[in-house]
Amino acid sequence: MLNETLTAAPRTCGDCPIRHRAVCARCEADELEQLDKIKYYRNFEAGQTVIWSGDPMDFVGSVVSGIATLTQTMEDGRTQMVGLLLPSDFVGRPGRGAAAYDVVATTDLVMCCFRKKPFEQMMNETPHIAQRLLEMTLDELDAAREWMLVLGRKTAREKIASLLSIVARRNATLHLGMRDGPMQFVLPLTREAMADYLGLTLETVSRQISALKKDGVIRLEGKRNVTVPDFDRLLAEAGDDSDGGMLV
Amino acid sequence: MLNETLTAAPRTCGDCPIRHRAVCARCEADELEQLDKIKYYRNFEAGQTVIWSGDPMDFVGSVVSGIATLTQTMEDGRTQMVGLLLPSDFVGRPGRGAAAYDVVATTDLVMCCFRKKPFEQMMNETPHIAQRLLEMTLDELDAAREWMLVLGRKTAREKIASLLSIVARRNATLHLGMRDGPMQFVLPLTREAMADYLGLTLETVSRQISALKKDGVIRLEGKRNVTVPDFDRLLAEAGDDSDGGMLV
DNA sequence: CGGGGGGTTGATCTCCTTCAATCAACGTGG
DNA sequence: CCACGTTGATTGAAGGAGATCAACCCCCCG
């Protein structure tokens, strides 16, 4: 359960835990070699800002381990998370000079960065990268649209249940396709981060989590360790149909 | 002002009003010829459903003229719009067998459809299509994220102002880059569609539009014709900084 | 003339926010 | 070792923005 994230950069692409899921997933050996020449690792501590919105970006890259958030902020300080970056997720937009969002490390973070200019050039030459990036972007677009339903139409309780089910599902697929029985996982977000994700206040998040606990939908050990005794029940609370809207 | 949309399909790709902005934008003459063999036009009347979520999709395509909406619906009937499809926008996801969303024609609609299988094959062979689709998908993702801020953190009044400013801006860029002076445009959506877009009820939409009118932010002729005397004022009401968060 | 779709407006209710107090865990320095 | 501050979280009380329920209008069309 622990140690699902490395804390150090892998030595070579062969060692890389995200080798088969990141933007480089489809690359051949020679293409990896090319990428290797323009890549470098960067480490961030929990809480550190990776990029400020509006700053010039001279790199793009992948999350190797740890979790980061993508957020937008209004002048008066209201903030909305618009992306949750997990290992293998891609950061940055080829062709864009400045960052559009704040990127903040939620946990300790390792990123595999590519210098932007040469990466863009490689994209034009080797279709494997562009193909994979298209696939990943389409997936993100689907996730964003799913989230628009959550933000626009779901109640606070449903929002929390939706977030929990998403984290739970991701955890299950990560850890060798859910053995049935109660699922357990660690919430990677503070109450405030959850509120920013769901368009709520942190007080409401806290209240609804307590309510779900009281109603037996989830169990808690400490603040972060969640157990879901009945996943279908959680999905029902999220307002999803029980097959979970699988799109594949 | 009128007749910005054709009501009939173009005869050839050369005539096509979206030739330089759609998924085929980067194609060479020979590639267009190839596309021509797998394409066909379809017409829909206002209100008609183009695709039902969950239905098998044997085509993908572009909006040639008219407007369509992408919506998600929960079992109890709550619906959230997750995309507004304007001329040149792409419909469908290569690689996916079934539709993930309802697509409904808001106005009379002409679509340029490609049979899915051969289109997917062309995508693998000609990078121009995949490149353009990636670009378009990244733009859509940015739009979706902008919308997540609107849905999650803005007030009803700000939501309406945001929607109006988006429609206004699109109209301005379409019609030869805003001559300054009051902008005018036609709202392409009913109050109910706006509500579905913004995560509100149609009553709230109506009230807030009335309020913006009373406060002089907009003027109305009939229900649909909007005049914006001071665009910066509208942006301020939307909670955007006056440069409009340009990302380029 | 009747009917229906789209829109506006009013009254009431409710869910979530706001403001505020309290708590537990943790680290730090005297 | 204990007082103190900090950070994340919980809980309570009060208020408000928007939902809900409902009446009504306008206009087009059969």
| Major sheet summary line of chain A | 4 strands, antiparallel
- Global morphology of chain A: globular
| Strands of chain A, total number | 11
**Percent strand of chain A:** 15-25%
> Helices and strands of chain A: which structural class?
alpha+beta
Number of domains of chain A: 2
**CA gyration radius of chain A, whole angstroms:** 19 Å
CATH topology of the largest domain in chain A: Jelly Rolls
**Measured distance between first and last alpha carbons of chain A:** 26 Å
What's the tally of helices of chain A?
Answer: 7
Oligomeric description of these chains: homodimer
Low-confidence stretches of chain A: 1-6, 244-248
CATH architecture tag of the largest domain in chain A: Sandwich
Helix fraction bin of chain A:
25-40%
Q: What's the pLDDT, averaged over the residues of chain A?
A: 91
Largest interface: A-B, 44 and 44 residues
**SSE ordering of chain A:** HEEEEEEEEHHHEHHEEH
Assigned CATH superfamily of the largest domain in chain A = Jelly Rolls
CATH class of the largest domain in chain A: Mainly Beta
Short summary:
With 248 residues, chain A is α+β, with helices and mostly antiparallel strands. Chain A has helices at 29-38, 116-125, 127-153, 156-174, 191-198, 202-214, 231-237, and strands at 39-44, 49-51, 59-65, 68-73, 79-85, 90-91, 102-105, 109-115, 183-186, 219-221, 225-228. Chain A has 7 helices and 11 strands.
